[in-house]
Every structure is written in structure tokens, then in C-alpha cells.
Structures
1.
Amino acid sequence: MIETIRVGEISLALTRKDIKHVHLAVHPPSGRVTLVTPKGTRQEVARAFAVSKIGWIREKQAQLREQARETPRQFIERESHSLWGRGYLLSVREEESKPSVRLSHRRIILTVRPGSSRANREAMIHRWQRSLLHDAIPPLIRRWEPKLSVKVAAYYLQRMKTKWGGCNHQAATIRLNTELVKKPKDLLEYVVVHEMCHLIAPTHGEEFVALMTKHFPSWREAKIELNELPLAAAVWKG
């Protein structure tokens, strides 16, 4: 059961679980605040803890508000696009030939038919980006399955506004945000490992933290880096 605590202008979602330590988090991109406490913690005790951390909460929310948000792309000549953590210029070529996308040095070469619409160019780029993820993800899963002693039944790509990934523990499936194609590959690996660890430990409790610390010691640094990178454009079509 989730309760709401108000501390001044800030609302916190309070959840009690079978854990030993308190977990306070401010989530991107909106600055949503969650507080997870051990079972039996009284609401007034939880609220007192939140009050003691109010300065930290406000600081984190301010950082998220100031964080750069990627402006919507227009898919035009010499527009900047990110791929695996690097910037590339888009080169649009109109030709009476089969549409295609390819990399050439620091450029993304988009070949389209004359008069191609912005929507068509965007769809082509997104299909190409998904294909890159489909090339990159299976080897990561195969690498980590024996290390974690788990089996991923399937993975899915999805455009998500607030999460980098997700896990269906019972079905043994994981979901990954298509925006990860824009981030460094080591951060993609972090998210893959994160979600695979949830196949063992469904929550972010002590077991999960121990797994991540054992198998991916730099996970905390990766999490911070990922959440400090520019967010996707605010207006998405799905």
C-alpha cells in the first residue's frame, strides 16, 4: 500500500516493505519522490525522516529541472544526432533509390526519395536505431546469463518517458528504452544487467543491491551518469 506524505510543497510516496534500511529517491525526469521504509514504521517517523532530508530532496529536484532536455529533432541537413554517446551530423540525400541509413565517419547518411516528409525521415531513423539495439542487446544478454545464472525468455524495445528499462519477473522478460541507443554502450550494459538482476530480486532491496555490487561494481556511477545525460524530447508520439 502506498501512502502520500506532504512536507511543505513536496509530496512523497511512502511504501513499507520487508527491508532493514530506509530508501529515499528522487526520480527523473519529473522529480517524483519515493520513500521506502521497513514494515512497522509509523507515518510520523517516516515524515520526520523526510523532513530531515528536505534540503537534499530540493537539491535533487533542482538538478533535474536544470538538466538539459533534448529538443525535438527535425531530421534535416546538418542536424545533430546522438548515437552511443557521440554526436553525429545528419546528412540528408534525396535520390530516386531505395531509402537507407548508414554511418560514415561522424555523419549519419539518410537517403530518402525526393519530397520525403519529416515523419518518414523520423520513422526511418527510428527503425535504424532499433536495428542497432537489436544487434547490441542479445550479445549482452548471452554474456550475462551464465554470470547471473538466469535465462531471459525475451526482451522488448519500447519508447519510455520516465524509465530506462523494466522487468517482468514471472515471465522472465525485460524491456529496454529505445533512447538507450543514444547513450554510451557501457550504460546500455548497465541497464541490461540491472533488469536481469530483477529476474532474481524483483525489488530494489538488499538482495538486488548486493547482486549489482557483486557483478557490476560501478553500477552507482553508471546510474548517476545515465540520469545526468540529456533526456529525450518532451513530446513523444508513443
Note: Helices lie at 43-52, 54-66, 118-148, 185-197, 206-215, 219-228.
2.
Amino acid sequence: MSETLRLGEITIEFTRKPVKHVHLSVHPPEGTVRLVAPPGTRTEVARAYAISRLAWIRAQRERFSAQQREAPRRLVSRESHYVWGRRYLLAVTERDGKPEVRLDHRRLMLCVRPGSTHDVRARVMHEWHKSLLHSTLPGLIARWEPKLGVRVAGYFLQRMKTKWGSCNPRARNIRLNTELVKKPKDLLEYVLLHEMAHIIEPTHSEAFIALLDHHYPSWREARAELNALPLAVENWS
């Protein structure tokens, strides 16, 4: 059961879980604050801990609020788009036939029927993004399953407003934000590993951190790079 702690203008989601220590985190893009504490922690103790970290919380929220945002995509020719961390110029062609997206070394080409609306173009682009992820993820999952000693029952792709990914440890299912197709592939791998590790350790416990330290020692740098990259205008993890 979650509680809400209010410290002035800051709202904190307070949850008791089977962890050894208190965990305080601030999540982009809006700077959502979450505090997880052991089951017996009294609300007053959690509040006092949050107050002691108030300066840090505010600093994190200010950093997220200053983070660069992508301008809304109009999906017109000469517009910049990113695929796997690389910038491409979009070329839109209207012609009869099945809509498609193609990529060469310099251009991202979107072919749509004459008169196609922005929503239609966005839907075609999103399906193409998903196809890129579907062609990449199975190999990454197969690489990490034996290393972690886990089996992923399934993965799902969707737009996510507040997360890069999520995991259902009991079902061994993983969900990933389709915005990851715009980021370098090593950051996709970091998010995937993070969620796969949750199959072993559902919370961000010390054991979970130890897993990341062992299997992906540069995970902190990957997380920092991911959080520093531009966010989609619809907001993201």
C-alpha cells in the first residue's frame, strides 16, 4: 500500500517493501519522487528521511526540468529524426501503394499515400520503429539470458510516458519504450539488462545493484547518458 508524503511543493510516493534499506529516487521527466522503505518503517521516520534529502531532491528535479526536449515532430521533408542515436534528414514521398519507411546512409525516407495526415504518418513511423526493435531485441535477450540465468517469457513494445522500461517478475515479461529506437543501441541494451535483472531482484535493492555492477559495470554512465539525451515531446522512464 502506497502513501503520499507532501513536503511543500514536493509530493513523494512512499511505499513499504521487503528491502533492507530506504531507497529514495527522482524520476524524469516530471521529477516524480519515490521513497521505498522496509515494512516496519513509520511514516514519520520516512518523512524525516525525505526532509534530510530535500536539497538533493530539488537539485534532481531542477536538472530534469532543464533537460532538453525534442520539438514536436511534424513529419515533413528536411526534418531531423534520430535512429539508433544517429541524426537523419527525413524525406517524405507521396505515392500510391503501401506506406513504408526506408533508411540509407544519409536519409530517412517515408513513403505515404497522397494526402496522408500527420496521424497516419506518425503511425507508419511508429510501426517501423517497432520493427527495428523487434529485429534487435531477440538477439540481445538471447545473449543475456544465460549470463543472468533467467528466461524472458515475452517482451512488449509501447509508448511509455514515464519509463524506459518495466518488468513483471512473476510473469517474466518485459515492456520497453519504443522511444529507445532513437537512442544508441548500447543504451537499449542497458535498459533491457536492467529489466531482466528485475526478474531476479524485483526491487532496486543492494542485491539488484550488485547484479548490475557485476554484469554491466558501466551502467551508471549509461543511465546518465540516457537521462541527458533529448526527451520526446510526449515525455518518457
Note: The chain has six helices and eleven strands.
3.
Amino acid sequence: MKTFAIIPVSRFAHAKTRLSPTLSPIERENLLKAMLKDVIKVLKNTVDQVLVISSDNEVLDYIQQLDINVLKEQGVTDLNGALKQALEYSSRYCDQVLIVPSDIPLLKEGHVKSILKMGEEYNVVIAPAKGGGTNALLCPVKGINMHFGDCSFFKHMDEAGKNGFTHTIYDSFYLALDVNTSEDLGEIMLHGDGTCTQAYLKDLNLEVRSNHGMERLHVLRDE
């Protein structure tokens, strides 16, 4: 089967606003760029083609510099509307797609290869995010609707079942980690050896400390 990977990317100006107590706007933008490099590097080595869809010309210009195909999102839509456009485009060229977010820098080639291997037996493979979302979705290019958002993991399971697709779960700590909080930054600094994202965070002089409160890790800027 021919497989495209699809990465939806929001505007750089809106990057990771939940990290604003820790990182400045330009730091959050550069963080997203570093994570994109990590995700794209893995996907380029494991699928037939990588496609980024975005409504932001700045994002599309940056991605083209990485020698990746881009698709300009048409009209005013949401994430699932953008993915529908990407699926329609991809259906002309491939059999299945692997949809992943831009903020999973701990993604490894082994994860993708395992998911593709499972896809030889199942129509749909779903990898959950730690908060109940979806951090990877392997599915046919036709016959399935996108439900990315809150608790999308369960919605994608239901969607696959009601449309008669065989489906299974790929569960991984590294793949489940998307970056939204300062604690997530700490996980990248602990587990992200060899990634552009970890290197960037170290350049910012961030320091990780254990924490016994609600969050397991506390991230500080080492002045």
C-alpha cells in the first residue's frame, strides 16, 4: 500500500499559547519549528510522501524550505475540515494516510514502522494521546470522517467501527506525548535525546526539576 503522512499545522503566531508562562511568542514559534523538523525527519524515512496542510503562508513557506509538499487550506474551516481537504487531495495518489500532529517530537521511526505493519492486518490503527486525543491515525483515504479534538481517540474508534473498518490500538508513551504544558517540555528534555526539540530547549537554558505537586516535573529558566 502507498502511504502519505499528513501533518496539519496552525498559524505560527498561534503556536502553543498554553506555554506562554514559560516561553515568549518567538520562542514558542521556534519550538514548533523544531518539533516539525523532528516529526518530518521521521516520516520522510518511513512513508511514501509527507504532506503539510496549513492556512498560514508563513508556515507553508517554511515547510517548502524543508523540501516537503504543502497544501494550502481553502476557505475558513477547522482542523477536521482541513484534514478532509488533505484526504481528498491524497486520495488521488495513495491508498492510506497516516495523520499525525506537529507537536510529537518523540516520534520514532520504529513507531511508524510498527503502525504500518499493523495496518497490513487492520484498516485503521489509532495511537492515543495522553489526554485522550489522537496522536496518530492510520486510515484509508475514503470512508472515514475525522474527529480530532477533545477525546478524539474514542470518537475515532467509534467512527472506524460504525463504518465497518477493522481497527486496533497502538499505545506508546513516547508517541502519546504531545507538547502543551511546561511539564511536557520537561519530558522532552528527559527523553528527547537526539531531537531538534531537546537541543532547542537546552539552548533556552531551561532546567528540569522533580515536583511533588499536581505536575510531575517543574521547568525553570536557568538564569
Note: Residues 98 and 131 are 20 Å apart (CA to CA).
